[in-house]
Design goal:
The complex is a heterodimer of chains A (about 120) and B (about 140). With about 120 residues, chain A is an all-alpha fold. Chain A contains five helices and no strands. Chain A is globular. Chain A starts with a helix and ends with a helix. The chains are: A mainly alpha (about 120), B mainly alpha (about 140).
């Protein structure tokens, strides 16, 4: 029962973030799923499984309210597929620990810039 | 620029580095694209990559179905509420809110030290989330 309640709460707030900010919501889902007692190795995959239908729903709502530009979007989708294939190839060749730290720093710098300097 | 940034972010997504977030950062800071357009693009481009990942995770038995079901059922009204709130919020406020979200995400990621994630455990391997009885049945076949 506790697991189901926490899963629902996580999904609800993850959904709000997804719709409001246009991001996945995994930042909220993964820690709450861990709190519900879900095994660590299942948390990320389950979070993605929750995020996908919510994202589809949000994306449709954004289209309906005219917020998403349609120009060139059909080129962007195969372009991202090619990029994903290249990324999967790179993943085997790069030190991902260092990359994760650089990514974390990028987030902090971007966040500071957006909050304090715009 | 949008095409270049989309390509770069999809490379990073495949490396597990939150490429969607990088796309948002690049578009917000280096283009004149509106905040809501950036968010809509990010959501749309997330779908194909996430779809492939979810199918693979499902085949490997890494998705806890009950948790996912309750998460989705509550998440859909949450998403509706989030999109509804957009009508009342200034895009500049959204930009700052997103900025705080990025700051928090970065701080959490740095605190966790960028630990290498173990590869996902596949069906039938030792430590697989599939119950022992089902593993033995698979091995017997």
């Amino acid at each position: 029962m506790k697991t189901k309640v926490i899963a629902a709460v996580a999904g609800f707030f993850g959904g709000i973030v997804n719709g409001l900010l246009g991001t996945g919501g995994g930042m909220i889902l993964v820690p709450l799923f861990r709190l519900s007692g879900l095994e660590s190795k299942l948390c990320h995959a389950t979070s993605l499984a929750v995020t996908l239908p919510i994202t589809i729903f949000s994306a449709v709502l954004y289209f309906l309210r005219g917020s998403t530009p349609l120009d060139g979007i059909w080129l962007l989708i195969p372009l991202s597929a090619v990029g994903a294939a290249l990324g999967a190839w790179f993943l085997k060749k790069i030190d991902t620990v260092l990359l994760n730290r650089l990514f974390a720093l990028l987030l902090i710098v971007a966040g500071v810039r957006q909050v304090f300097f715009r | 620029m949008i095409y270049l940034f989309t390509f770069l972010s999809s490379v990073l997504t495949a490396m597990g580095l939150g490429g969607g977030t990088v796309l948002v950062i690049l578009l917000v800071n280096f283009t004149e694209t509106s905040q809501l357009a950036i968010q809509g693009l990010n959501l749309t481009l997330f779908i194909p990559v996430a779809l492939v990942s979810v199918i693979l995770h499902f085949k490997n038995g890494l998705i806890h179905k009950a948790t996912a079901l309750y998460g989705i059922l509550a998440g859909l009204p949450g998403a509706f509420l989030g999109v509804w709130l957009l009508s009342f919020l200034d895009p500049e406020f959204l930009r700052v809110l997103l900025g705080w979200f990025l700051l928090l995400s970065g701080a959490v990621a740095l605190f966790r030290g960028g630990k290498k994630q173990p590869p996902p455990v596949l069906n039938g391997e030792k430590g697989s989330p599939i119950p022992i009885g089902e593993q033995r049945q698979k091995k017997a076949k």
